[in-house]
Fold:
Amino acid sequence: MLKFDVKRKINTLRDILVGKVPDPKAQVEQITIAMIYKFMDDMDIEAMEFGGNRKFFTGEYEKHAWTEIMQSENGGQQRANLYAEGIDRMAMNPNLPQLFRDIFRGAYVPYRDPDTLNMFLKEISDFTYDNSEDLGNAFEYLLSIMGSQGDAGQFRTPRHIIDMIVNIVDPKKNESILDPACGTAGFLISAYKHIAESNKDENGKSTLNTDDRKRLTDNFAGYDISPDMVRLARVNMYLHQFAKPQISEYDTLSSTEKWDDSYDVILANPPFMTPKGGIIPHNRYRVQAKRAEVLFVLHCRALKPHRQSGYYCTRGYCVPIC
Structure:
């Protein structure tokens, strides 16, 4: 359940940005990047409190740590410059795991107004990386404010529809799960929560052991053609305890690299609109077609025979496949 105070803070962040960054999707990206940036410093501070050393902001990158940027002696312009420079450089930081470097690749601050940026950074400072469940709920709310349709025909699937389909398909803890048009990973997160809730004892305590949790993180996969969606999906998965999210920037309809991969469960809301530039499908489909909805259904061949997929179709019906 999203706490009212967290929702209020996210809405405040959007209000701060709207004059400089009017596009809701761009607002989400700026808030996402700032939260991850700040959380890395939180983890560094926690490591030092336990007698360890900084992991992310070390050496030449130490001056870009959140706590350094927010030092009271820094003027507004200096703070803005340090933050913007830090965002620009993070993708090249050798101290970051590949996941974080991927998140920061191509990230930048689209405005340099110190007053706006200072208000924004001070509000971000109220978020701390000490409760992954609250952060996950906050991030899902943040994603829900994006526009309903993207340039490639993506639609945000309503949460209650996602949860209904996941409940019907009923994924199990030992099954592999794919979303070939994952967007921000809503279906994958719902499947993870469903499995976690289905594996509790009568006292509400989880019965998943270490091996189960490791298998879960390895068994979930998602593809999306949009690098922005991939970034948001990786953050979403990370905030839901997936240390190494298996989210790939991948053209599901035109590429064959993952064609031979198979999964126990497929959950997706594929784009039911063919982009204006058209689609050039590969030649391994059994039916020759160029419409996105047809090709995505055909992609269900990746489903292992003993299972059926949960496909939510934006034309108003669900299609169980195979």
Q: What stands out?
A: Confidence is low (pLDDT under 50) at residues 148-153, 311-322. The chain has two domains: 4-129, 148-319. Residues 24-49 form the longest helix (26 residues). The beta strands are 177-179, 220-224, 247-249, 265-268, 310-313, 317-319.
